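hi! just following up on the protien thing from before. the input was this:
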Amino acid sequence: MKIDVVDVGHVYPGPSSRRVLDGVNVALTERRIGIIGANGSGKSTFLRLLNGLIVPSEGRVEVDGLDTAKKAREVRKKVGFCFTDPDSQIIMPTVAEDVGFGLRKSGLPKDEQRAKVMALLEHFGLAGHADHPAHLLSGGQKQLLAMASVLITEPTLLVMDEPTTLLDLRNAAMIGRVVAELEPAVVLATHHLYLLESFDRVLVFEGGHLVADDAPGPAIATYRRLMEAA
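and the predicted 3d structure came back as:
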């Protein structure tokens, strides 16, 4: 998969007309890409541009040649999205029902849908919770459920916006290990910088600008210098 971000800027509408991205140009092709930056740097807006949750005010974003502003439905079949708070994505009463929700229009027979759901829950260690209330899971389990509910549709790319922010260190490390083993490509924003050490590439945002694009070591070093200077 290739994502092209061309001369992208974004301004949120409203009285303040707040500009959160300006002049971003980047092409993404690697399997593991990290996104880092201070709160308010524009990284979450950048992530939402990648699957059409937000349409750029200026410039264009293309996923395998599909313009996100014109082909959002096709783009979202390719690019899944996990939010920081998994509770915002859990929409069905039980764990299995929540994962299966993504297959409701797949055309698969019910028994095949159930088998696919159970196989994915087994993979994520949630099979024993299949019929449990989804909102009663632990924080780490909820994040696994959110990932499973997106991955059931077999996207080519999974975009994750700070999925470890609300977790303790043990669960954050667990999510990091799971992400490392995922089959789809991943774009991951995080403040847990150690999770990015084995990534292919890391982008650093500051003040709405892409200020560094490098291997993890140099990119993280740049980010640390920016934070120390601030």
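The two ends are 36 Å apart (CA to CA).
Strands lie at 3-11, 19-28, 32-37, 58-63, 66-67, 79-82, 157-161, 185-189, 201-206, 209-214.
cheers
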